[in-house]
Each structure stands twice: as C-alpha cells, then as structure tokens.
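I have been asked to look over a protein record a colleague put together. Alongside the sequence sits a line of tokens, each denoting a local backbone shape. Please read both lines and tell me whether the tokens look consistent with the sequence. I do not need a full report, just your reasoning and any doubts. I have pasted the whole thing underneath without changing anything.
>
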Amino acid sequence: MARIYRPPQRTKAPQPLSRNQPVTGLDHQGRGVVRTDQGARFIAGALPDEIISFQPLGKYEGTLTAIHQHSPLRVNPPCRFYASCGGCDLQHLQLAAQRDHKQQVVSELLQKFAGITAVNWLEPLQAAAWNYRQRTRLAVHWDPKRQSLRLGFRARGSKSIVEIDHCLVLSDQLNPLLAPLKQLLPGLKSVRELGHVELIAGVSERLVLLRLQQPPESADQALLQNFAEQQQVQVWLQVGADAAVRLARQDASEPAAPQYMSSGVRLNFTPGNFLQAHAELNQQLVAQAIAWLDPQPGEQVLDLFAGSGNFSIPLARKGAQVTAVEGIASMVSQLSENASRAGVQLEAVCADLEQPWKHPVLASQTVDKVLLDPARQGAANAIAEITARAPQRIIYVSCAPDTLARDAALLITKGYELRQAQIVDMFPQTHHIETLSWFERR
C-alpha cells in the first residue's frame, strides 16, 4: 500500500508575554479590557485600574499571569474551585461593584443601539448572593477504562469537568445531594448512557433529573428508587428527546407535584419548565413587574413567553383579561392547570411568537398592556407584532442586555419611551444580567 507523505504539523509559537498593561474597564462578560497597539484584549479575572501581565491567546483574548497593581474593588474569591470552574466569573469583584457594572453594561448598550441616553434607574433588586440557585445542571463523564466518574461543572473555557463536592452559589437544599450522587451513579449499568444531571429545588421538594440515551434497566430503577427514598427526593428520567417522567416510588404512592412560588401563589411545574434560578428574587421580580404594569380589572393584557404562569396567574388575580402565550405545548397545558388550581380565568395559547401571529386569538385581539419575558435571543418579531397593536404600556423582562437594546431600538422607532429600568441581580457572582424595563407609548 502506498503511503502518502504528510509533513509534520507546525504548532504556532506562543505569543510573547504582554507585561505591565493597564486595565481600562470591564466588558459585558466581566472580562478586563486592555488596550494594546494591536487592539483590545479581554482578560478574565482582571479588573479596572489594575496593572497586569497576560499571555495573549488567539486574536482578542489573553490569560492573566500576574497582577502588579490591585484594584480596591478586588476581593478574595471564597470558592476553592473558582480558579478552574466555569460556573462563576465575578467572585473576585465586590458585590456592589458587580451590580454597578451590570447597570453600566445595560446603560451603554441602550445608548449604543437605541440612542437612549437618560435612563431612570431604580436601585437593583437584590437578595441572597450565596446559596441561592434553586436549579443547576451537572456535567457527567464516565471513563470505562478507569471505571471512574467525573461529576461537576465545566471548566472555564473548556469541556473538561471540574469535580465539586460543594458549591457556594447552590442552595442549601441541593448541596447535600452532590456526595450521594457521586456514590450512586457509578453503580448504575446505564451510567455510560448518562448525558447530564439536573438538580431542582421546589417549595418543599427536591428533584434529580437524569438525562439518558436509553431507558434504565430494572436493576437501575431499583437503585434509583432506593436513592429517592433515602435522600427524600423525586427522581425524574428523560430518555432522548422524550418528556421527563417521574420514577415510580417503591411504595407506589403518588408524591405531590413539585411547585414554585410566584407572588404568593404555589404553581406546579415539571422538569423542563423554565424556572428562575433565584427563588427569592423571582418573587420580587414578579411583584415589581406587576406594579409597573398596573393591570386594571377588565384590561386586555398579553403575557408573552408565559411559561407555566409565573406572571400570567398573578396578573389574572388582579382582574385583568389575560392572554398567556407560550411556544411549548406542555408548558401551555401546565399553565392552564395552574390557572384552574388558582381559581383564575385566562386564555392560554400555544404559538411561536417569533413567527407572524396567525393564531385567531392573537390576530384579532385588542391589547391594552403587554408583559414579555423572552429567552436570550430576545423578541424582535414579537416586538413588531406588539407595536402594531399599539398597547399603552410594555414591561420587558430580559436576561440578555444586547437583545434588550436591539428590541428597545425597535420600540423607540414605534413611538415608545423608556420610562424606568432596574437591574435584577438574579445571578450574583456571575456576569449574567437580568433587567426589568418599562416602556410607555408617547
């Protein structure tokens, strides 16, 4: 057989170390910005007013190697996994400064993309900055050669897994499950079929969701049932693209449905339903959004990207005529059930809001006020449909400041003004930003 000659691949020599560079600011991902003759570099872990050295990486980034002058806003990260774990990225910055930075990011993006220079900012909504996460996803890797399991979070900028036994931002309900899970999972025959594990804390129950490629064998089901009984948790299984199902209990009893709180109302959910990460702040967020919207009895209110009813049901309790729109059919069903349990009337509609609104309920309805809570990609098409109906007031809940700014620009061109805005510190110790905005038709 002829052999084809392949010259050895040449690896690029590392770029020379960049020394004694001033950090001029933070970008929207919380990375330090360094201005060099070759352009800006973004350095994770660096803070404004510091003098640093870094190893250039690629065209735009760099790895922090030394801090020669420290910022007065720098603090020692309390988490022992912080240097490698990709879950948090702002533990080295004082908490108040984290919130100031997040507000500055949104302000700058609103000015850049929407031309909004004066924003009436309220003080950020805030709550516990540690042990707040009521849901998390754990990465899993099974090494069949070593017969060992890695369970934890992805490393920063990598697919490798940082094994953890305690997480400082995870709720006190969920942290105690980490060690028992590490013991349980290697004993499952289906461990090699395991994609990842989700932990969720409801009002009075804990859930462990295993995502698998194939259904577990009966022996595995028995192990999981024992685990559920010992740890007093609900175990749920999701096989492939199927919906998550609850594993039957050993005593065949039917446990209570998992629930979360919204404006003093308990709402049922199932794994896969969207839940805010911070339970306490979700309560504040819903209350503030409804106060700004100020729904009056009989007003026609649209709640878009409605999920399982986080805003819809509190709105309906105010007497408004609520049409709640969600694109996932199972969540629409959950929303309808929650409304029935809460004793309120509303219209639950399943529709893709990023397509033209052809659903008869949406096509013909007059609208007084709108609340929307889209995913990170924002709501460009929905904004066009909303403004065509000319509601007087729009409350926009955003988890992505760049798409919020883009959508705000559309609202400005359609005759709306930004009346108030507020940062919701839903994700302390990270760069992620939640914003609540009030737009009013001029």
